[in-house]
Structures are given as C-alpha cells and as structure tokens.
Design goal:
Layout: H1 10-13, E1 26-27, H2 29-39, H3 41-61, E2 67-77, H4 80-89, E3 106-120, H5 124-190, H6 196-231, E4 240-241, H7 256-266, H8 268-289, E5 294-303, E6 315-324, H9 332-398, H10 404-439
Parallel strand pairs: 1-4
Antiparallel strand pairs: 2-3, 3-5, 5-6
Helix pairs in contact: 2-5, 3-5, 5-6, 5-8, 5-10, 6-10, 7-9, 8-9, 9-10
Main location: membrane
Keywords: Cell outer membrane, Membrane, Signal, Transmembrane, Transmembrane beta strand, Transport
Organism: Methylomonas aurea
Length: 443
C-alpha cells in the first residue's frame, strides 16, 4: 500500500469537521492537538514574531513617504552678525537708526514646519523593504515549522500514553492471574501437593509483574505531564486520555524519491531557510548601494519674531535639494559589504544544511515506519503463538504433566509477546507522525 501525504487543513487531516475543544479533562488526540495549537506558548511567541516582522516592514516602507516635522527654536545673541541677521529675518531692519556694531541683545523665536523627501539612496530603501517583506514571510514559515513540530510532539506523546495504558492493563491482568495461581499454590502447598519452590517462583513472578505495573503507571503519568506542557496546561490541571480506542496501523510509506520531492516542495523549515538566504541577498544589495550618491529634497516654512506672535508678514519659505556621496568613510561601507557577503554565504550553507537534515529525517522516518510495521506483523504472529502455547501448557498442567514453573514460563512469554505487540503498534503510529513531520505535513 502506498501512502501519499500533502498539505491540508488541520481539521481535515485529523478527520474532524466540528469544534473539538474539550470542555472536560478528557481529550481525544484531535482535541489535544487543537488545544495545543490554541494554547501552546511557543506558537503564541511565533505569532508575536510575525507581528514584529510586519511592524518592521511598515518601518522600512516609511522611507518612501515624506517626513514632516514641526519645531520651535529660540535664540538670543548680541553678536553683531547674528543679531543683524535675526533683525533682517524679522522684517524690522531700520538703516536710519541704531548702532549695527553694538545691537545689544536680540531675541528670535522661530516656529517652523519642515518636510523632507528622499529622492535617491542608491536603492537602499527598496532593497531593505524587500528584505522586510521577506522577513514577514520568514516569520510565517517559522510559525508553520513550529506547528509542524508541535503536532508531531503531541501525537507522539499521546500515542506513548496510550501504549503505556495498554501495557498497564496487560500488567494488571498478569498480576491478577499470578495472584490467583499463588493463592491456589499456597493452599496446595499446605496440603503437601506442591513444592515450596513452586510457591516461591510464583511470588517472584508476582513481584516482577508488580514492578512492570509500576513502570507502566509511571509512563502514563510522564505522558500526561508532557502533554500538559504541550497543551499549555499548568501542572494542577487534569488531563485524561479519552476512551480506550486502538488506532489502526498506518499503511506502508511511499518510495523515498517521491517523499523527498514532496518534502522539498513544502517543508516550512527548508522554505524558511531559503527565505533567509533571499533576505541576505537583499541586505547585501542594500550594503553595496551605500557606495552610490544620495539625494534629498526639503522644504521649510516658518517665521521669525522677537516674541511668539505669528504674523504672515514675517513668514518665509526655504526649499532645496541636497546630493551627497561618501568619498571616504574609514572603510565602514566596505566592511558592511563584506559582513553582508559572509551572512549571505552562511545563509546559503544553512539552506544546504537544512536540506541534508530533512533528507536524513525523512529517510530515518521512512525506515522507522517500515521497520515498525514489520515488527507489528511479527508481533501479531508471536502473540497468537504465545497464547496457544499457554493454552496447551495450561491443559497439560491441569493433567499434571507439567510443573507450575513451565506454566509460569508460558505465561511470561505470552505477556512479553503482548507488550511487544503494543510497543510495535504504537511505534508504527509514532513513526508515521515522524514521517509526516519530515514531510512538513502539519502547517
């Protein structure tokens, strides 16, 4: 059977069409995933990073708009040149009176509105705005990658909890069976029918069964604790697994080349690495553009007066264009370019590293799923054989042909076969989840 994976909405991929929020402490897998997606702190952090990137984009786009400022300045001077210029600006020059060499103190108030506009910055504003836009897309891909990992972690933890529950049930049944046999053996020992060694063997087996029960109960608690963390629940909130449903085994995975092509086309971590490389390219272009001239236009409107009284008779307008180019900046521009080049190289190598890691994860997940499916098939045969062997040994024991030790060996073999079956089945389900994560399935 060939199984293909593609990016689909979460509700559809989980097979759930209605609201799945759990109103109680009992969660199905679908409800656990939805709770994690709604309440996990890491996802909320990713959302805030998207908002930060969007704000950074808005900041970059601000360079394409005029910048308008208002100001109010005050000056006082008895310097003849400055005082003379302030008197002229205030439109109150009188050539027939006053000593221009000793003007005394002159006050000047200037309310002003200034507008500036960047005409050309070598393309820096454009490249930086493109980098900011790519930054928003990169943040969205980071959130998608976080969702992909989170759903896989919840799925793996949930299946781990179900496996522990089934193992706990097997261990409890083993305890009941061994305890029953021990009680009967003690009666038979008192009657002189069985040996003391048989009773001791049963007590040993009971201790081992109780030890296995303690370990499986602890595994359930660990799975619950992990799921609480993933779901954003505090330690005092309750979490229980819904029902006792045994999920069906997944199908065999598709060929590696087909899976790889799918992963390379959609995996959010690889797409994000490519976005980061594209950002580095834009930043390098912006750094190189600093070598080009810069041109800015400005216009200023205001008035000068000896007090704060405004009069249109004293207003004035200044406008102009300024062009500048860095002739020598102490090698700062060259170093910025060199830094951007190294950042681009590192980003490109990150793309290659991410692809190699995804290929390895995908191959490991494919092999892990196939191995788990093979183990599940073998374990089913082993369970049937162990149960039939136990049935035959039990009949022989009742007929007095075999000892209780042989019966115990058959019962232990049956319980171990069941535990291997449980482990193989849930290992296959977890391996399928790992394969989906490696494909970038959950976005």
């Amino acid at each position: 059977m060939i199984v293909k994976y593609s990016v689909v909405p979460l509700a559809a991929l989980l097979g759930f069409t209605g609201p799945v929020a759990s109103a109680s402490a009992t969660y199905t897998l679908e409800q656990a995933v939805e709770q994690a997606l709604a309440n996990n702190p890491e996802l909320r952090i990713m959302q805030e990073r998207i908002e930060q990137a969007d704000a950074q984009l808005g900041q970059a786009l601000a360079s394409f708009y005029p910048q308008i400022k208002t100001s109010l300045s005050y000056q006082h001077s008895d310097n003849p040149a400055m005082a003379f210029s302030m008197i002229i600006a205030q439109r109150r020059l009188n050539l027939n009176g006053g000593d221009f060499n000793h003007p005394g103190g002159v006050d000047n108030y200037r309310p002003q509105v200034t507008a500036t506009y960047s005409l050309f910055r070598g393309g820096q504003d454009y490249y930086l705005s493109q980098a900011a836009q790519l930054g928003v897309e990169s943040s969205e891909l980071e959130r998608a990658a976080t969702r992909n990992r989170l759903v896989n972690n919840v799925t793996a933890a949930y299946y781990g909890g179900l496996a522990a529950i089934e193992a706990h049930q097997v261990n409890n049944r083993a305890i009941e069976a061994v305890q029953s046999e021990l009680n009967q053996s003690k009666i038979q020992y008192d009657a002189g029918v069985v040996l003391k060694s048989d009773v001791l063997s049963l007590e040993t087996q009971l201790a081992e069964a109780r030890d296995a029960e303690i370990q499986s109960a602890h595994a359930i608690e660990l799975a619950q604790s992990l799921l609480k963390t993933l779901l954003g629940l505090n330690v005092n909130e309750a979490f229980d697994f819904a029902g006792n449903v045994q999920p069906d085994l997944p199908g065999s995975p598709a060929g590696f080349d087909e899976l790889l092509n799918q992963a390379l086309a959609q995996h959010p971590e690889l797409k994000n690495a490519e976005k980061r490389a594209a950002i580095a390219e834009q930043q390098l272009a912006a750094a190189k553009a600093a070598h080009l001239p810069r041109a800015d236009a400005y216009v200023s409107y205001g008035s000068d007066s000896k007090d704060l009284a405004f009069s249109s008779n004293r207003d004035n307008v200044s406008a102009g264009v300024m062009v500048e180019v860095d002739v020598f900046s102490g090698f700062a521009t060259q170093e910025k370019v060199r830094k951007a080049e190294h950042e681009l190289t590192a980003a490109q190598e990150t793309v290659r590293q991410t692809r190699l890691r995804i290929e390895n994860q995908l191959k490991s997940a494919q092999l892990g799923l196939q191995q788990a499916l093979n183990r599940a098939e073998v374990s089913d045969v082993a369970v049937r054989a162990a149960e039939e062997a136990l049935r035959l040994v039990n009949e022989q024991r009742r007929a007095g042909v075999v000892t209780v030790t042989r019966y115990l060996e058959a019962e232990v073999a049956r319980d171990r076969a069941r535990n291997r079956q449980i482990s193989a089945r849930y290992d296959a389900l977890r391996a399928e989840a790992d394969l989906k994560q490696a494909l970038g399935f959950w976005q």
